[in-house]
Design goal:
The chain is an alpha+beta fold. The chain contains 12 helices and 40 strands. Bound molecules: alpha-D-galactopyranose.
Length: 716
């Protein structure tokens, strides 16, 4: 055996977990301790365990079911340059140029939900705190790191993972959610083999264009819906991220997740601390379905704003007018919205620009003054007219961006992210403002503040971001600090978002980014919902919504009915029903019959809104397996079942989940123009679970929605 491999094996299996001590609530670790100390971070069903050896080295001895102790015990948070020869969690160049770090535990403590393990390099005043926050009921652990430089000079962080977890031996299948503009969240699964697998983004300003910052890891076999051990991971960060999976030579899986350190080495001045974003890990031994339900509850309660308040049904004008509208046109949409029963109107892109009117995407971005040609009476006239019709009013912003053809660019060419000596590279004719610069942050906040304070009728914002960073240079940051840009941009963005959220607690926010580009749990802390995709053809969107459902609760996923695609209006509504419903249709142009379809669909959605938005999701049949696709939401007092057919689906029972076997349910088909399917009104939960709901043949783009009402206890 080669020597380096021996060293490595020694560090992986140095401990014998059977000699662990009982955990204590807090301890100062003494390096003279003669025995090993165990630290357990537990939720209802899962545990993450660490052990400190007699030399103060920290090892991880398990992650998974509380009942199972892994025998493997590998170095926790491995550092570069002092023995570890695989991907490190941390790589630091110290003030004196030393490229190695050695970490020993100095103390650990547990306060409420938070466990903190404090590590220090014995030779340097360089400190690393590993932090873990448990959300017990949902088997979720938030993991992050704080690094502190007390050296007498700058240190350079070359790799700085938020979480470095070992998953032990075994076979693992990794599911990623990749895609593109209008084709987001496509699921792809692969078995992890030896070596390194990386899922990442280098986009800087937003996490996702090609890959959402989420992952699923299934242990022992491919991902299953209702069985098997599965881990879900998601980084709460809107910039570049990196998830690295390395199956080490001993067969053990190591994962490193955090900000993408590629071209983003971060310089830390003496006395400065660096807090990484949180990596959220959720665990289940009952498959992806149970995992998603836990994640949904966690996200509703701990991440998004007002996660238990059902959302408004809105009308957006983007696909019906694009940039071509004026006050008269917009006001004319209000009457239809009211008739149909919608709650809120969202005015999209195109409302601003004086010198450079925003009539297309080539100009005006950055000049947030209403265009007097389109809106001679300003936004106020619209909010008042909306109010008269009983509608709330929302407005689109893309505050981090600028078109070169804009007054803002003319005034502040130094505010752009760009590389010196390079020709500016545009995407959608626009550039990113440099939010590392406090003046720019102030400008961005003032844009929103100014518009909201002048127009108190605005109660909703769509916050868009239609490009990513391709030339990462900051005119504001010192030339030696250029690589700090990727991190400092996102921190600047969060500072502005936080200020908006705290200054306007009653204004709801939708995150959008050329469709679903900013769907991370970092930005979602400041928002209520997200726009998953500009793809609104219901057939294609079904797959996108399916992908989103693994992490995002329905209440946070905005689905708008449009005229895109070939399917019927009913099918479009049924697809949009399974999240937060909205419409983006020129209601004036709908036939009388279609307006009636829409009116009745909106009324039906309002009946099931709480079930969908606050219920537990059960995925029944995947569109990937086709031709049918089905999912349902369950609450104590009922359930709603969605069934879609993408091709010819023969009659077949639909086996339901999540309902109570001992209850009987009255089942009714809803959102039907004429008579619904003739179903027995009282079906037992057991029969619906075991035998299934009998549904007839459906053709391409046909759908059905079933409402199961109020279970009545009928005994065991
Ligand atoms: C992005 C969004 C769209 C719309 C346009 C406006 O593409 O995803 O929904 O708001 O910008 O320009």
């Amino acid at each position: 055996m080669r020597r380096d491999v021996q060293v490595y094996i020694g560090r992986l299996r140095a401990m014998n977990p059977s000699s662990e001590q009982e955990p204590v609530a807090s301890a100062i670790y003494s390096q003279d301790a003669s025995s090993k100390v165990s630290i357990q971070i537990t939720t209802h069903n899962a545990a993450l365990r660490f052990t400190i050896d007699e030399h103060g080295k920290l090892f991880q001895s398990g992650f998974g079911s509380k009942g199972i102790h892994l025998t493997d015990c590998s170095e926790a948070f491995p550092t570069w340059g002092n023995g570890w020869v695989f991907e490190p969690a941390l790589s630091v160049i110290h003030a004196d140029g030393n490229t190695s770090t050695d970490l020993r535990v100095s103390r650990w403590s547990k306060t409420g939900q938070i466990t903190k393990i404090e590590l220090k390099d014995p030779e340097y005043p360089f400190f690393v705190d590993l932090l873990f926050r448990t959300i017990e009921a949902e088997d979720v652990i938030e993991v992050w790191t704080v690094l502190r430089n007390e050296e007498d000079g700058e240190v350079k962080l070359e790799a700085y993972a938020s979480s470095a977890l070992h998953f032990g031996d075994g076979d693992f299948w990794l599911t990623q959610f990749h895609g593109q503009f209008t084709d987001e969240a496509k699921m792809a699964e692969e078995k992890l083999g030896y070596g390194l697998k990386v899922l990442d983004s280098k986009l800087g300003v937003r996490a996702h264009q090609f890959r959402a910052p989420w992952l699923l890891l299934s242990k022992g076999g491919p991902l299953q819906e209702d069985e098997g051990e599965v881990f879900g991971g998601s980084l709460a960060w809107s910039g570049s991220f990196r998830f690295a999976f390395e199956v080490l030579p001993n067969g053990e899986l190591q994962t490193l997740c955090g900000v993408n350190p590629f071209a983003s080495a971060y310089k830390l001045a003496p006395g400065e601390a660096f807090e990484t974003p949180k990596m959220i890990w959720a665990w289940s031994d009952r498959g992806a379905g149970d995992l998603s339900r836990k994640l949904h509850r966690y996200i509703r309660r701990e991440v998004i704003r007002d996660g238990d308040e059902p959302r408004a049904v809105l009308l957006n004008n983007w696909e019906s007018t694009y940039f071509d509208f004026d006050e008269g046109k917009i006001v004319s949409l209000f009457e239809g919205a009211r008739e149909i029963g919608l709650d809120l109107f969202l005015l999209d892109d195109g409302w601003f620009g004086q010198k450079y009117p925003r009539n297309d995407d080539t100009q005006g971005l950055g000049d947030w003054t209403p265009d007097p040609r389109k809106l001679p009476n300003g936004i106020g006239a619209l909010t008042r007219a909306a109010k008269e019709k009983g509608l709330r009013f929302g407005l689109w912003f893309e505050p981090e961006m600028v078109n070169p053809r804009s007054e803002l660019f003319e005034k502040h060419p130094e505010w752009l992210i760009r590389q010196p000596k390079r020709q500016i590279e545009l995407q959608r004719n626009q550039m990113v403002l440099d939010l590392t610069n406090p003046e720019v942050r102030e400008f961005v906040f003032d844009v929103i503040e100014g518009t909201l304070s002048r127009n108190p009728g605005i109660s909703y914002i769509k916050w868009d971001c239609n490009r990513y960073i391709t030339q990462p240079g900051s005119p504001y940051l010192h030339r030696d600090m250029q690589e700090n840009l990727q991190v400092d941009y996102v921190r600047g963005l969060y500072a502005v978002m936080e200020k908006v959220a705290t200054s306007y607690p009653d204004v709801q926010i939708m995150m959008c980014s050329g469709g679903g580009g900013r769907v991370d749990l970092g930005a979602m802390r400041f928002a209520h919902e997200l726009w998953p995709s500009d793809m609104t053809d219901p057939v294609r969107r079904l797959f996108i919504q399916w992908g989103f459902s693994y992490f995002m609760p329905a209440i946070a996923v905005a689905n708008h009915v449009t005229l895109s695609g070939e399917s019927s209006l009913k099918f479009a509504f049924d697809v949009a029903f399974s999240g937060r419903l909205g419409m983006d249709v020129d209601l004036d142009k709908l036939s009388k019959a279609d307006r009636e379809v829409a009116r009745s669909a909106v009324a039906v959605y309002k009946e099931i809104r709480e079930l969908v938005q606050l219920g537990d999701l059960y995925r029944l049949e995947s569109p990937y397996a086709g031709p049918r696709s089905s999912l349902m939401y369950v609450k104590e007092n009922g359930a709603v079942v969605f069934l879609y057919s993408l091709g010819d689906s023969p009659p077949a029972c639909l086996r339901l989940k999540g309902i109570v076997p001992s209850c009987s349910y009255s089942v009714r088909e809803i959102n039907v123009a004429t008579e619904g399917l003739d179903l027995n009104s009282n079906l037992s939960g057991r029969a619906l679970i075991e035998g299934g709901l009998p549904v007839p043949a459906l053709g391409p783009c046909e759908s059905a929605v079933f409402h199961l009402e109020r279970p009545v206890e009928t005994g065991p």
